[in-house]
Write a structure and sequence with these properties.
By secondary structure, the chain is an alpha/beta fold. It has helices at 10-13, 20-31, 46-59, 77-84, 93-105, 153-168, 188-194, 198-201, 227-245, 257-268, 282-288, 306-313, 317-323, 328-342, 390-410, and strands spanning 2-8, 35-42, 62-66, 89-91, 119-121, 125-127, 136-141, 144-149, 176-184, 205-212, 215-223, 249-252, 272-276, 297-302, 346-352, 367-374, 377-385. The radius of gyration is 27 Å and the shape is elongated.
Amino acid sequence: MTAALLSIGTELTRGELVNTNAAWLSEELTKLGFEVVEHTTIDDDLERIVTVIRRFAETHQVVVVTGGLGPTSDDLTTAAAAKAAELGLFRDESVVEGIRRKFEAFGRVMPESNAKQGDFPEGADVLSNPAGTAPGFAIRLGRSRLFFLPGVPREMQQIFAESIRPAIAGLAERRTHQIHIRTFGMTESGVAQALDGLEEAHPGLTLGYRAHFPEIEVKVHVRSSSAAEAELEAQAIEEKVRVVLGDAVFGGRDDSFPAIVGKVLRDQGRKLAVAESCTGGRVGEMLTREPGSSDYLLFDAVVYSNRAKEVVLGVNPEILRVHGAVSSEAAAAMAEGVLRVASADIAVSITGIAGPGGGTDDKPVGTVWFGLAQRGKPTITRHQKMPWGRDRVQTVSAYVALELVRRAVLAEQDWAR
């Protein structure tokens, strides 16, 4: 059973907004057993919208449309749906009253233009929107079921979960299962090369790859005789993938990299301190984005200048004079200093040249040194030369620092080697 997605909005076709809705809906429909075979994005043009709706309805059993349900003149989706199905429009006064009450709850008067959001094609099923003012709706056109949702991701996702998923869950015979494996430290081509031959060995397997810098996600999608059999096969293949990719694998679909590092620290009862120069606090921001980070993060010192390194961390000025701030010696001193200042169990430091200026022949832009200090163990350092712009250098540096911490706590590798 096939499904298609139609995203409506000139802001999408002009590139002013990124269409995250299509990716989210595709994954949800795939999990339900549908073959999502087509995505189309179209501008706010009534006739073009009508044409695509009719074409999709002739071809696919389920069509999900997002966007264009707002109160302004360029919100044309409802009118286009009615025209495509050759239906009139009716106004649901109870919906309009509900929108009015939402405005009143915030001490505001509903503009009359919002009453338009109570208009629906005749016979449509209204899909309530607890998170916003624009309800969705559903109609049938030929053999196709069409669902129309607002474009705001939070609203769209809630309506889909509460109203659409239950309505279509039994339509497709689910014989697939998909598992997500998230990695860091390998390129997309390197991951694909490592897994070369796996699909040929498993006829029902399709491997997918998604690069979300600096992570690579592997999708293990298995089709079999039943959903249960597909799940068992997918789990067996997942184990093979994890073995092949080794330490590069850090988690599954819902795992964030900083959360995994935080879990390792929490599980081992370790307290972390961080000293950052070229990353300007990015490691701390990543860690504190996760709830409960106070369980393991004691201190994040952003010491951009040499003077700050000396005063805050106690770095010997002679180290900075002789070796420079971007050096193995400085990284080690920073890690040892923040370990001492915070009374932590483990500390990591980052010092480098993020660019675009500041590089030299010996230390070009993208040169970054890392230090790792632990109580009772020798301090180690590591350096990388990164061929990217400033933002990517900072992001990868933060990931590398957290990866040093993760592997050190797990004692998975001798980083001094």
